[in-house]
Amino acid sequence: MNENRIAHYPVVIVGGGQAGLSTSYHLTAAGIDHLVLEKRTAMHAWESQRWDNFCLVTPNWQCDLPGHPYAGPDPDGFMKKDEILAYLKAFRAKVDPPIREGVTVRRVSRRAEGGFLVATSAGDVSADAVVVASGGYHEPIVPRMAERLPPTLVQLHSAEYRNAGRLPDGAVLVVGSGQSGAQIAEDLHLAGRKVFLAVGNAPRCARFYRGRDVVTWLADMGYYDMPVEQHPLREGVRDNTNHYVTGRDGGRDIDLRRFATEGMELFGVLRDFDGTNLLFDTHLAQALDDADRTYNGINATIDKHIAQKGLTAPPPSVYTPVWQPERERPALELAASGITAIIWCIGFRPDFRWLDAPVFNGAGHPQHRRGVTAQEGVYFIGLPWLHTWGSGRFGSVGRDAAHIVAHIAERRAGADAALADRDTAA
């Protein structure tokens, strides 16, 4: 294709999720022409990569997409999957983005004359700026050892799990205890399935404490407005595993120890399969203790806040373990266990190979400051802790989008002013 004839846009947004559409909202408000490219359909991950009983783990009042705050009857509740989809559908209708769905971006490269060439499955376009809104969860992680497991064993990634009824009869091994792993293990457990859970290093937190949702306390304490530069871990917080908790049935703690008293079998991190046995680390007790330490630590910070502000609240408490592993089990014979399915809940890895720009560190992660990179015209939006805890969530992605669009508008104004000065000089 003749590059001189291709369509040109001031901004191209790659990704049609809540981050991309939030950016589109602010670009439209600023009067900046743009195009959104989405390889599937807008918001597709919420429908295609969530299980049937999925619900938010943050209260509905935190849903505050641009021009579209939660307006339902239960602000302190937790939207279920169908409610989330309805909320997002209404947001898309409000934004009415200039979007092309079913279009894959194959490569973004810099042009010698400035700007970018965006090669797609539907042809090429050019842009002055590119906003990467595709998130950081691209390739499901499944270990190579999975290739050596018996072919009769059903293996799914968490993104493929829907409900217990779609799995074969028998026990299920859930690998990973982050938000998805803990909640899927609970979903199977409540469905009456025998569950084996390989526990990782994910922390946990209380759902409610001293009369309020813990999220509400932390919001009052300013935690969700803390920029990444002020966090004790700085950018290292971006690598942290999310705390496990649930909004299911009105919200509650997830206590893996309690599950163990009810028949769920807990193991350490799954390391290998020797042809007969699944092999695990023997650090289960430490992982449970560490998770509880975080749980109690968060509650202690709330205690301190209440005391400092002189607030009236129910009395404090400290979680004490309801179960302890009597011994660490390093192996589980697969055939004797009755396991017929494995759900891999160990996350995703990013894939930005299509973006040809010097904006990545040695680990392949984008380098930026609140989404603005050192490469002029390249931006990121919707990544965890892009700026604050809520950057990858409904609560704060709109603020990040507004910041990026303001930067784009300022850059365009500067370019227009420079061009006017040249014309005047001529």
UniProtKB/TrEMBL annotation:
Domain of life: Bacteria
The keyword Oxidoreductase appears for this protein: yes
InterPro entries: Auxin_biosynth/cation_transpt, CHP04046_FMN-dependent, FAD/NAD-bd_sf
Keywords: Oxidoreductase
Keyword Oxidoreductase: yes
Protein name, as recorded: Flavoprotein involved in K+ transport
Natural source organism: Ancylobacter polymorphus
